[in-house]
Amino acid sequence: MERKTFDIHQKRTLNTFALLSQTARHSMDNGRSGRDGSTLDWMTAGVFAAFSLEAFFNHVGAKRFRHWERFERGLRVEDKLELILDELGQKPDWGARPFQTIGSIFKFRHALAHARTVELDHRSTQVVEDRHEVPELTVWWEDQCNETTMKRMVDDSWAVIETIAEWAGVDCSLGSGEIFMQLRRGPL
Known about the structure:
Elements: E1 6-14, H1 16-32, H2 38-64, H3 68-71, H4 77-88, H5 102-113, H6 140-143, H7 147-168, E2 175-183
Antiparallel strand pairs: 1-2
Helix pairs in contact: 1-2, 1-7, 2-4, 2-5, 2-7
């Protein structure tokens, strides 16, 4: 087959929030496998659920606010959401899913993003058959690394994205791409 020379122009829009959300879902599905290391998969699912929300807020913010990129880095994620909801004239029900879950998603993310070494110490008297019956000492975020909690965080983060996307009239797909090719005639 003879190779030909083409002028190529490629364009791609990647809605990064959607890729981050897919990563959260993929990690959650891996956690369900029950294999060793599933806690790491649950942890990844929760963090990427938070990442996807913040990336989506930046996506919408850039479409709704002039110069979003100039000031968004100085805002807490909660402030970004508040600005966007005010701009859209929306007042979600913070006492019901999916919006009620946002606080715990970002609490989880902040706990890991700003983690410190923690020393746990507990003494008790228990009747047990062997050491495997003694509950492990854990911190709050470790207790969240389970299927029930992560399913809620991942599902609700996407539901928030879909809801706000509808309110804002923005696309929440992975994105799109195009390739334009034109055969080049003559020498390079």
